[in-house]
């Protein structure tokens, strides 16, 4: 057992919420959580990670924290992205169990009660699975489905379909996740990778309360590629396979042309096929190079060993009592 922390001891449940421009949603979320959690757990805390918001989210968090000591927040020096905000939240949460949820009330707080029931029943890694993707466009739905299919056939890790970031993790799972050193954090994959007794709980995704989604298509695509490349080396192998197949085809056609020239003489017209084949091979080479580049880029990002995030400010934390290695491997000035 670790020694209990000075700040109000160690709560039974921590709620970690990545927050980017959600000033209007936060007060509603806090009220809903208070109602749901009253009597459900012996003690709880809310850890919000302000991911470079520009709409006054931080002042809302300060007010909320001043009015309720169970609410605390860390504020990044800029927008680092939701995945990293979650990592920071896990670093700052001290509960025996940690729930991760969005700030926009799309993840119904009532589902936490079901999570708790499963947790008390012995499950350590409990993930919310959306019942449907009704609120999303058909294009987004189909792309999501394609991604899961691709991941299932490529990835070396099994990803439950429809499982997102809304989940409850036992302290053991949180500590396992925090021990993973990688920078490119595709957390959906990481949750699955760490394992532990896991179970899904279906929930209906609610409408976003205020504001709009921050995930546009471009971001979702790069997110999907991050996921595939972090958990699979198949894209690298595709380049190799394509190279082999094309080498065989070109050897065969070279032999064919050689024989044809020997037996039937030469015919000059051949420029179109020449140009086409040059372009084709340049294309293949560029694709292969690009593929390798993507992985080299990731290796580069890992070896730089930059801190995962920089904290601008902490609200409601006694700095000496928090144990958070990643954001703090920094000279005091930046902190
Ligand atoms: N979020 C974040 N950093 C970002 C983008 C989003 O912390 O760069 C938070 C956001 O405040 C919300 C959650 O991540 O709490 C989910 O974001 P959003 O609702 O925009 O995504 P969607 O529900 O459309 O997937
Ligand atoms: Mg949302």
Automatic annotation (TrEMBL):
InterPro entries: Glyco_trans_2-like (IPR001173), Glycosyltransferase_2 (IPR050256), Nucleotide-diphossugar_trans (IPR029044). Its main location: membrane. Residues 14-176 form the Glycosyltransferase 2-like domain. It comes from the Bacteria. GO terms for molecular function: glycosyltransferase activity. Coiled coil: none annotated. GO terms for cellular component: plasma membrane. The keyword Cell membrane applies. The keyword Lipid metabolism does not apply. Keywords: Cell membrane, Glycosyltransferase, Membrane, Transferase, Transmembrane, Transmembrane helix. It is a multi-pass membrane protein. The chain crosses the membrane at residues 238-259, 271-296. It is found in: Cell membrane. Belongs to the glycosyltransferase 2 family. GtrB subfamily. This is Glycosyl transferase family 2. It comes from Bosea vaviloviae. The lineage of its organism: Bacteria, Pseudomonadati, Pseudomonadota, Alphaproteobacteria, Hyphomicrobiales.
């Amino acid at each position: 057992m670790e020694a209990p922390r000075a700040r109000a001891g160690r709560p039974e449940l921590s709620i970690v919420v990545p927050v980017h421009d959600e000033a209007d949603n936060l007060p509603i979320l806090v009220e809903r959580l208070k109602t749901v959690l009253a009597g459900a757990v012996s003690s709880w805390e809310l850890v919000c990670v302000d991911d470079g918001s520009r709409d006054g989210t931080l002042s809302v968090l300060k007010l909320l924290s001043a009015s309720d000591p169970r609410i605390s927040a860390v504020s990044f020096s800029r927008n680092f992205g939701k995945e990293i905000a979650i990592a920071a939240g896990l670093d700052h949460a001290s509960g025996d169990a940690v729930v991760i949820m969005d700030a926009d009330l799309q993840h119904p707080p009532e589902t936490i009660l079901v999570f708790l029931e499963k947790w008390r029943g012995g499950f350590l890694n409990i993930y919310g699975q959306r019942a449907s993707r009704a609120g999303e466009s058909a294009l987004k739905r189909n792309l999501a489905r394609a991604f899961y299919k691709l991941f299932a056939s490529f990835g070396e890790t099994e990803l439950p379909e429809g499982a997102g970031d809304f989940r409850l993790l036992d302290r053991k799972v949180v500590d396992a996740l925090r021990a993973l050193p990688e920078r490119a954090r595709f957390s959906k994959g990481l949750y699955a990778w760490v394992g532990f007794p896991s179970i899904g709980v279906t929930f209906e995704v609610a409408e976003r309360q205020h504001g709009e989604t921050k995930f546009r298509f471009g971001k979702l695509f790069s997110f999907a590629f991050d996921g595939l490349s972090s958990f699979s080396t198949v894209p690298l192998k595709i380049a190799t396979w394509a190279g082999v197949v094309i080498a065989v085809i070109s050897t065969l056609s070279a032999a064919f042309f050689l024989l044809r020239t020997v037996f039937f003489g030469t015919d000059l017209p051949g420029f179109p096929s020449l140009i086409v084949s040059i372009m084709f091979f340049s294309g293949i080479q560029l694709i292969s190079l690009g593929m390798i580049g993507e992985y080299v880029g990731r290796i580069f990002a890992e070896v730089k060993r930059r801190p995962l995030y920089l904290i601008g400010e902490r609200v409601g934390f006694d700095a000496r009592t928090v144990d958070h290695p990643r954001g703090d491997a920094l000279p005091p000035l930046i902190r």
